[in-house]
């Protein structure tokens, strides 16, 4: 497949989802005369824990630009010669994107910007505007609508990452999850409510697919997924791959709502996760049709539930 005809700059490229997106873009390669770069802090660039990953990427042609994301001069210099900016910033840094997008608008070369939208659909229905975890992403979208006129933006809405959904988080086990070591699962309601998921490697694949299809992606909010399944289907896949029956417990959704309220009242860092799990259980990840096909991707191009569960079982066996 042809290489990407852009010079691309990535923010948050070494983060949880950023490393998957950066790896996918590097694998797709930039065409002759173009480059792929990440913008990162000096502390990240020199972090010993990041060196194996950065060294691998540099051998694939990645350029590393260091600077302060809050320094307009640093960002403006990084934008020189860049066609596309891909943001992979985490939840705590989302509002910083308004300055990044404004600087892109004022740059001489940036034409296309991907805000960090990977995750739950923040404009799924009328109730979405009131969900607390959505507020910063909604502010970024509003800023783009009101202030950005030249640069085209693409929102890649992936729904929950199945890889993270499989975790049973200590202290909030009631919101659902899976523990491979103890062969234990917790599901919300009956566990038979469908949820649309994307695997983290597939997020990278979908970003590349969007880059390959600018006419379908520019200026759009794309709803994309790896697959749809239910919490109980996940339990059965774990049982199949581990060869044993799992212990499964069930949390009524009202109990999830009550816990969510308590967590927000205590300003718990787990409150947003509880809200998101409730949203997913309520069916707000489901679409009559996704935009995968518009990006040239069919079911056979995406990871399966078996793939992701196999990866989780394999990782647990190494502990």
Question: Which series of helices and strands comes N to C?
Answer: EHEHHEHEHEHEEHEEEHHEEHEHHH
Q: What's the story with the biggest beta sheet? A: 6 strands, parallel
Distance between the termini: 38 Å
> Which secondary-structure class do the elements indicate?
alpha/beta
Order of strands in the sheet with the most strands? 3-2-1-4-5-6
Average pLDDT works out at: 97
Number of domains as seen in the coordinates: 2
Helix content: 25-40%
Q: Spans of 5+ residues with little confidence (pLDDT < 50)?
A: none
CATH topology of the largest domain: Rossmann fold
What is the number of strand segments? 13
The proportion of strand residues reads 5-15%
Shape label: globular
Q: Which architecture of the largest domain does the CATH hierarchy give at level 2?
A: 3-Layer(aba) Sandwich
Number of helices: 13
CATH class of the largest domain: Alpha Beta
Spatial extent as radius of gyration: 20 Å
CATH superfamily of the largest domain: NAD(P)-binding Rossmann-like Domain
